[in-house]
């Protein structure tokens, strides 16, 4: 619930990108992409030579490893430690990365035995 979706869709619309939802890829033959609608099970075809699938989410931790490989430079800069948060650990939705960053900041420099177990909950007045 980070409210970024309307802005993302607006930016895609301004860029001329067509957003298709509730469809899965049913086939690609190098010239045409076949999409299957989830409700009802109808098929549609689009001219398509290349398909990029966003999947196999892997952490983006190159910067973490680069920083950890230079402990001397970190020490000179006064940096005592480097940790990974969000997509550097495991990719997920934007809201998950924001929550993880928020939680990390709240718990920074808190001894593990003193960490509270908290659940975010809506506030009612």
Architecture overview:
The protein has helices at 5-14, 62-68, 71-76, 94-107, and strands spanning 23-28, 32-37, 43-47. With 125 residues, the chain is α+β, with helices and mostly antiparallel strands. A three-stranded antiparallel sheet has the order 1-2-3, with no helix packed on it. The two termini are 20 Å apart. The model has no long low-confidence stretch (mean pLDDT 83).
Helical residue percent band: 25-40%
* Overall radius of gyration: 22 Å
Q: Describe the strand arrangement of the main beta sheet, using strand numbers.
A: 1-2-3
Count structural domains.
2
Main beta sheet strand tally, sense and closure: 3 strands, antiparallel
Question: By helix and strand content, what is the structural category?
Answer: alpha+beta
Q: What general outline do the C-alpha atoms trace?
A: elongated
Mean pLDDT, nearest integer? 83
- What series of H and E elements makes up the topology? HEEEHHH
Supply database-style keywords.
125 residues, 2 domains, three-stranded antiparallel beta sheet, 4 helices, 3 strands
């Amino acid at each position: 619930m980070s409210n970024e979706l309307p802005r993302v869709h607006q930016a895609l619309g301004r860029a001329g990108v067509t957003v298709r939802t509730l469809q899965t890829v049913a086939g690609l033959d190098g010239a045409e992409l076949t999409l299957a609608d989830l409700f009802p099970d109808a098929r549609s075809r689009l001219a398509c030579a290349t398909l990029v699938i966003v999947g196999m989410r892997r952490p983006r931790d190159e910067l973490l490893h680069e920083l950890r490989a230079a402990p001397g430079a970190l020490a000179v800069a006064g940096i005592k430690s480097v940790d990974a948060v969000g997509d550097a650990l495991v990719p997920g939705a934007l809201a998950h990365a924001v929550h993880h960053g928020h939680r990390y900041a709240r718990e920074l420099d808190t001894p593990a035995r003193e960490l509270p177990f908290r659940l975010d909950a809506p506030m009612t007045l």
